[in-house]
Amino acid sequence: ATVMSNLGLERYLEGRGIRLERTGVGDRYVVERMRTGGFNLGGEQSGHIVMTDFSTTGDGLLAGLHFLAAMLESGRKASELARTFDTVPQLLKNVRYGEGQAPLEAKSVKQAIANAENRLEGLGRLLIRKSGTEPLVRVMAECEDETLLNEIVDELVATVENAAA
To answer: Class assignment of domain 7-82?
Structure first.
């Protein structure tokens, strides 16, 4: 799974003795980690699911067929199979920056990130990264306390916007 995968998935798997491996965003990083780790199932929160026993790319049709097979084998409804874990509230906001700017290098942004991580300690997680495809900083946090979640993301977005101004 990628760094964007919900914390609820990690907790669900952990409760079943399964360790979630996180990679950079993109099928290529997921597949690369699957190869080096000898794993046969991986994916992204966006819905790309890779099953290396059958294919080396995210294949929705293949994933759908396997899901239908699981329904037939288990005798359960799709709604019962699809909702196996509770997601942790997640908030993602993007901040656009100009050419030549590096807002993540700003001291104010680094300090705001450190403060946010301290506030989230044990309650959730924080991910701030540059987009690989656009001049954007992606600010993502997860936390059961939605008030804290909104405060943290809004404060970080404002700090990144100021650094990019």
So the answer is: alpha beta
Q: Is the pLDDT of residue 47 over 90?
A: no
Q: Can you give the three-state secondary structure of the chain, one letter per residue? A: CECCCCHHHHHHHHCCCCCCCCECCCHHHHHHHHHHHCCCCEECCCCCEECCCCCCCCCHHHHHHHHHHHHHHHCCCHHHHHCCCCCCCEEEEEEECCCCCCHHHCHHHHHHHHHHHHHHCCCEEEEEEECCCCCEEEEEEEECCHHHHHHHHHHHHHHHHHHHC
Full-model pTM:
0.79
Kindly list the domain boundaries of the chain, sorted by start residue. Answer: 7-82, 90-163
